[in-house]
Amino acid sequence: MQSAATRYPIASSQRLLRMMAMAGVLLMVVSAILFQAPQLLGREKDLNDFDAFSISGRLALEGKTEQAYSTQLLFDAQKRMIGRAEFMPWTYPPQFTAVAMALAIPPVGVAFGLFTGLTLALYLLVLSRLAGPLLPGVAIATVMTFVLLIRTGQNGFLTGALIGWFLLAFDKRKASAGIPLGLMVIKPHLAVGSALLALLGKRLAALAIAAAVVIVTSLLCTAMWGAGIWTAFANAARESTALLEAGHYPLFRMTSIYACVRSFGLDAATALGVHALGALVAVFGIVALWFRATDTRLVMAGTTVGSLFISPYNYDYDLAILGLAIAYVLPDLLARTRTWESVLLCGLTWLTTGWGILIYSIVLSGGRTDPSGIGNDTVYWSLPAIGLIVLVIAAAAILRRKPLAAAG
Known about the structure:
Helices cover 68% and strands 0% of the residues. The protein contains 20 helices and no strands. The longest helix is centred in the C-terminal third of the chain and has 25 residues, at 268-292.
């Protein structure tokens, strides 16, 4: 039987990988300039995701950490520090606020380059361990996620690296899997699938280490800012929930079932009900894979994809986790697909991961600066959840086939 790399040489092309790496470095340099000194490229300052890290971090440096957790006060800080404002509420746990505070020390362009470069390197290291010689193929399939994260400076590379680190350690039955699981306290909703996997596998040592990481980092945050930081964080979570229900978040950049249903005009309660049903299916799927799947790679892939359906608050930059799932199953997919099927799957992945970029570039290219401070409530369809569901169904159907060579 021909290997996937033999049937699809582009999926293992190191030359192509080097070309993509050079393009990524160039995009990172341009993005750093746009963050730091956009006038050098004839552009005005446009608030982007990494600016939210920088501004919230600067508030923490000034001893005003709790202000970052108030949408209106954060909005005022944006106007005061940059002269413009955008709807970017700060709902991260205090552990990531500590990271943002460190990122606020250097100039924003330098901080962006350091954060994005280091987290990208970690993500690629983990991805290469999973994908092996097919790393170029995974990069091709998820290229839109790479572009999005390098351009915005979001933390998807970091969360993808942490989840991938957990899966690698979990597969080798190492208790150290608890370290990345605990560090996912920065985005706990993305780690539900991983925590469920640890419970199903009865990895008590890993779970104990994860709990210790959460407790220690929480105590450190309390020592830095006082117990009031947790009240501010809880208030921010409640405020963001209300804003999400009211439709003020950019639903087209969100990837959850909730955002999809809501963007088509249904009320928040109905959307949440549909989403809850989808989340239950995802959890059941992870459990079923654990007990029924004979291939560990399918369990890992199913866990990462299932995690994307659990929280209603998921964004396109979180889809770096999807790259982990693709790395696990790509050899088997390529061994079972004809060329036109592979092209369709890749195109669907591009559309799913790049939908937010597409809408922003074509429809909102003039910017979305929001004078109200509560978000632009103009609704554009959120289609990534549909794309993810179709991808899961298609991949599951393909993986049930025999390899093409074996099937004659």
